[in-house]
Amino acid sequence: MASTAGDLHRPGASTPPSAFEAAMYRKVAWRLSPLLLICYVVAYLDRVNVGFAKLQMSTDLGLSDAVYGFGAGIFFFGYFIFEIPSNVILHKVGARLWIARIISFPPSRCSPPRPPCFM
Question: Contact 17/25 with Cβ under 8 angstroms?
Fold first, then answer.
């Protein structure tokens, strides 16, 4: 079936981006790239800190590798169970409200208060 000029202007048609669209994508990429890089570095540091915490906990608490693995598995299981309902709620209420809720009430605020630790 031959394509006509009307087919090229319908939504979803594979037309090359205009100069304005290309400039817009370039500008958005330049603005988002530093933020995404910072988020990537923070996530990497978080994972590295979990490894360092394991080394310290193993010696202080006498945890075996199996016990530590079981504890890490429990956290993964909780993440797995609550991820799907969280995404369903995200779809229903919208990203702006849901991310604001996550920022306003992180899990650390839901835990009971602890006395300050001084080293």
Answer: yes
Task: Residue 37: name the closest of 49, 29, 27, 48 by CA.
Answer: 29
Could you tell me if 75 and 82 are in contact, meaning their C-beta atoms sit under 8 angstroms apart? no
How much is the pTM?
0.43
Q: Which two tokens stand for residue 90?
A: 């995200």
| Residues in the chain, total | 119
Nearest CA among 17, 15, 19 for reference residue 6: 15
pLDDT (tens, 9 = 90+) of the chain, 119 residues, equals 555 555 555 566 567 778 888 889 899 999 999 988 998 888 888 777 777 778 887 788 888 888 888 887 887 787 788 888 888 998 999 988 988 887 777 665 555 555 555 44
